[in-house]
Design a protein that fits this description.
Length: 282
């Protein structure tokens, strides 16, 4: 079976690209949409109380295969994740982003004045199109203003993904989260390394299988800043040879702690390190 997390198929409907691979009553090619909300949840079922799988940020694009009762069944173009999201946060008009949010988070203001009541809050890696500069602000194509120093050019990578991850220290843990308001372990890895120009899958098992090169792991393995350490269902980022940064449900936030302490605690819960991956410099 193809992984349903990254292949769009249901018994009655499937992505046309899966014809011949998956049995379905009907196949559709899907239609492009762009996220216009600050962020949108992607859920396992078309209900607001359904499990949060991940989140999609402003400016990112998806392919819509079906819509109904306020929900769209989509595949995220960035990491191919499949699920249901509120359709009112999507637009059929696709605008090429010029900038991304480079700060942990920033406000969108109704005018180029930081004293004006904000319209929305955007998180790191959200994308937008700026039509002009007005003083210290960028005027957004779809309305509002963002503080220019909180933005970077779209597609321009930062040099150090670990520094990006460190900025999330103390952010609440949220299963499926992918914003500066809340995120999970693999969401932290994805956001940080995407900011540095890497293509990163969504879940920890995918990251273990696909990112970088394996580092043979044993008790005495010398780890480096930027190494990814994996347990079954969990991943953390080494900030140095001795310290691990990870979003975790024990602290219920992004925490920096000695790797030895984290490894011992997780080991006491019955989980041992199953792999280490090292990404090349881009």
């Amino acid at each position: 079976m193809l992984d349903p997390r990254r292949h769009a198929y249901r018994p009655e409907l499937a992505d046309a690209r899966l014809r011949g691979l998956i049995e379905a009553e009907r196949y559709v090619s899907g239609e492009p949409r762009q996220v216009i909300a600050p962020s949108l949840p992607l859920r396992r079922e078309p209900r607001f109380d359904s499990l949060l799988e991940t989140e999609v940020l402003k400016g990112e694009t998806v392919t819509v295969f079906a819509e109904g009762e306020g929900w769209a069944w989509v595949q995220i173009d960035r990491d191919l994740y499949v699920g249901y999201m509120p359709s009112d946060g999507l637009s059929a008009s696709i605008v090429e982003p010029t900038h991304r949010v480079a700060a942990l988070r920033t406000y969108v203001y109704p005018e180029p004045d930081g004293k004006s009541p904000p319209l929305a809050l955007l998180s790191l890696n959200a994308l937008f199109t700026a039509r002009a500069e007005e003083g210290k602000f960028l005027a957004l194509e779809d309305g509002g203003f963002v503080f220019a120093q909180h933005a970077g050019l779209a597609g321009e990578p930062v040099p150090d993904p670990v520094a990006v991850a460190e900025a999330f220290l103390g952010t609440p843990y949220l299963w499926g989260g992918r914003t500066s308001i809340g995120l999970d372990c693999s969401g932290l890895v994805q956001l940080a390394f995407e900011a540095a120009g890497y293509t990163v899958p969504r879940d920890a098992d995918m990251q273990l299988a696909e990112l970088g090169e394996p580092v043979p792991w044993s008790e005495g393995t010398a780890l480096r800043r930027g190494d990814l350490v994996f347990w079954d269902g969990h991943v953390g980022i080494m900030t140095s040879p001795t310290h691990l940064l990870h979003a975790n449900a024990f602290h219920m936030q992004v925490e920096l702690e000695p790797f030895a302490a984290a490894r011992a605690r997780i080991g006491n819960a019955g989980f041992e390190v199953i792999g280490v991956r090292r990404l090349p410099r881009l």
